[in-house]
Structure prediction request, 136 residues.
Amino acid sequence: MKSKILLAFALLFFISYSAYSQVYKNRAKQVAFKSKDSYGRWTKWTDWEDCNILIVTNLDNSKFTIYSKETQEFDIVKFYPKEYDDDGVETFRILVVDKDGLRCNIRQRFVKSDYYSSQLYIDYADFLYVYNLTSN
Prediction:
């Protein structure tokens, strides 16, 4: 009887803990890039390339992970208040540090589209990329 009670409490603890877990998953379906040229000017965005990449935001561990060919893992440093860009689109931005210690911003814009729920930008000082996302 005592073991059944302990099992019930353990199960209840696991269910309640997992219910409050803050892990968000998205699927990137397209990606585009741009960078600074040798004169410090931004190039045009590349054409969209199709992809199928899982992107996970784990707030419990303060990690942001992109499962592309090479897994990109970022440590979350700071959350910024919700913003609205020049087009009036709601945007969330976080400051992160990559595995090499480089800081960059990750921005998620909630665009209105029949195919995509949002766009995710990775902003380095000299290189940008953007993913079109669907909810996973």
User: Anything to note?
Assistant: The CA atoms of residues 63 and 75 lie 5 Å apart. The longest strand covers residues 23-35.
